[in-house]
Amino acid sequence: MDIAWIQVFVLTLSECVAPAGKTVCQEREFELQFLSQPDCEFALQQLVSLKQESDKVIIDPDKASCTVSARQSKVFASVDAINEAFRGEDGWRAPQIEESSPGVERAAHQQRLASLPACGDADGVSPCKVGDIILEGAMGDPVEVWRQDQ
User: Fold this and answer.
1) Are residues 60 and 120 in the same domain?
2) pLDDT tens across 108-144, in order?
């Protein structure tokens, strides 16, 4: 295991939060790290829109951003070395290894897509397609929706 510097994108959000029943807010700032800029920008957009819906949170747009930076990180020679180093750790999950290239998967997906009927023409029979999406399983089954009650 070596130590290296890796590029990260730091999402910084500065907000002022008013506790319940108070009219004066308390300023706080927090940071999240992402490995890609699109992920950081998407999270920033979602956080800002979510917090702006609250009556008790004020976002400072001048202090909310995704900034490229670098962090020091452990670097392992192989997946086996990572698994060996963290095997006994609580909550450790071995990294997923992609065995096929995305180009091969995309070609197989397109080939299967071409052979399926459109869901509107399939009369509830699956598999079928909606645009570039293949729907598997029984059609019309109830969908479980999770939400947080407030």
Assistant:
1) no
2) 888 888 888 887 776 666 788 777 877 776 555 555 5
Furthest CA-CA distance within the chain: 62
Does some domain include residue 74? Answer: yes
| Alpha-helix runs per DSSP H in the chain | 37-52, 79-86, 102-115
Q: Cα separation of 48 and 66, whole Å? A: 12
Task: Give buried/exposed letters for 104-125 (b at 16+ CB in 10 A, else e).
Answer: eeeeeeeeeeeeeeebeeeeee
Are 7 and 48 members of one domain? yes
Q: What number of other Cβ atoms are within 10 A of residue 59's Cβ?
A: 18
Domain coverage including residue 75: 2-86
Instruction: Give dist(CA 32, CA 8) in Å, integer.
Output: 10
Cα separation, 111 vs 104, in Å, equals 11
Give the separation between CA 139 and CA 133, rounded to whole angstroms: 14
Q: Quick check: pTM over 0.90?
A: no
Q: Are 27 and 69 in contact, with CB atoms under 8 Å apart?
A: no
CA atoms of 130 and 119, how far apart (whole Å): 6
Helices first, then strands: H and E counts in the chain = 3, 6
